[in-house]
Specification:
Elements lengths: L10 E8 L3 H5 L3 H7 L4 E5 L10 H4 L5 E5 L10 E5 L5 E4 L12 E6 L2 E7 L8 H26 L3 E7 L23 H12 L4 E2 H5 L9 E2 L11 E2 L2 E5 L1 H4 L2 E6 L15 E6 L3
Parallel strand pairs: 1-2, 7-8
Antiparallel strand pairs: 1-14, 2-4, 3-4, 5-6, 6-7, 8-12, 9-12, 10-11, 13-14
Helix pairs in contact: 4-5
């Protein structure tokens, strides 16, 4: 008996969140959030665990199919995952670059005519090997995006790359932009690279397209000081889609916690609804 074809709902809801350690998040409210979300696909980043290390409730949540791509060598670091209401028809990990193919940075799955990817772009620190790693990732990921867009569109499909991109693109994407101009995440060359993702690769920043005016909406707040209380955040958790799918986006919401003590991650989920029936 053949597999049942995957049928998209009329409105496809995709959410993305950096969980800042899936085991830790599960103790703080992640499972309650997952049980309450109406998303069809959830993209997770910085899971920091292998499948066998996860409690059963996290590994096999009711009503969800989990795909987890852990970092093969850097244990307890990075890691991405996809949760979906139904099992995807295909899953691909990595993007064809040896250094990053088993680093827990990228996983992509097919759901009918739409592919959804979870991305954890490396965070950096100026003048350190971490920044060099980030730059190598960016140098190889952009050509992949160009190639991947051409592939999916040739197949009559769409793609959305969700995740923690670790770059604020514009001044209205972080509150304290003046004091961060020489810091990783807001360097001129990083911002220019993201411009190339939009202009050369032709992808669309879906949340910014729906909310063209800033500031924000922010999705990450430092744990230092009172960044969350003062809404001194960064907009670095993005849904970046091929133009055809981006045009179908009808709403985008950052699920900011009501208070500091109710957060289960230092990031907030970013949820977009796509009217794929149009």
């Amino acid at each position: 008996m053949g597999a049942v074809p995957f049928r998209l709902p009329d409105v496809l809801k995709v959410t993305t969140v950096n969980v800042n350690g899936l085991r830790a998040a599960a103790k703080k409210g992640y499972l309650e959030w997952l049980a309450g979300t109406d998303a069809d696909v959830a993209c997770l980043q910085e899971t920091r665990a292998e499948l066998a290390q996860l409690p059963e409730a996290v590994r096999e949540p009711d009503g969800w199919h989990l795909v987890l791509e852990a970092a093969a060598e850097a244990k307890g670091r990075a890691g991405v995952a996809l949760l979906s209401r139904r099992e995807p028809s295909a899953v691909r990990a990595g993007f064809g670059v040896a250094e990053f193919d088993r680093s827990g940075r990228y996983v992509e799955a097919d759901f009918g005519p739409v592919s959804v990817a979870s991305l954890y772009l490396p965070s950096g620190e100026v003048g350190t090997p971490r920044q060099a790693e980030k730059e190598r990732f960016m140098d190889t990921f952009l050509p992949f995006l160009v190639r991947r867009r051409a592939e999916v569109e040739a197949e009559g499909r769409e793609l959305v790359v969700c995740g923690d991109w670790n770059i604020a693109h514009r001044e209205d994407d972080l509150k304290n932009w003046r004091t961060n101009r020489k810091n990783s995440g807001f360097l001129p060359e990083e911002r220019e690279w993201l411009t190339r993702v939009y202009e050369e690769a032709g992808f669309v920043d879906v949340v910014r397209a729906l909310h063209p005016e800033g500031p924000g909406p922010y999705s990450w707040w430092s744990v230092r000081g009172k960044a969350f209380d003062n809404d001194a955040g960064w907009r670095i958790d993005l849904q970046v889609a091929t133009p055809g799918l981006a045009a179908k986006a009808v709403s985008a919401v950052v699920e900011r916690a009501e208070s500091y003590d109710t957060r289960w991650s230092d990031h907030a989920p970013v949820t977009v609804a796509y009217d794929v029936a149009v």
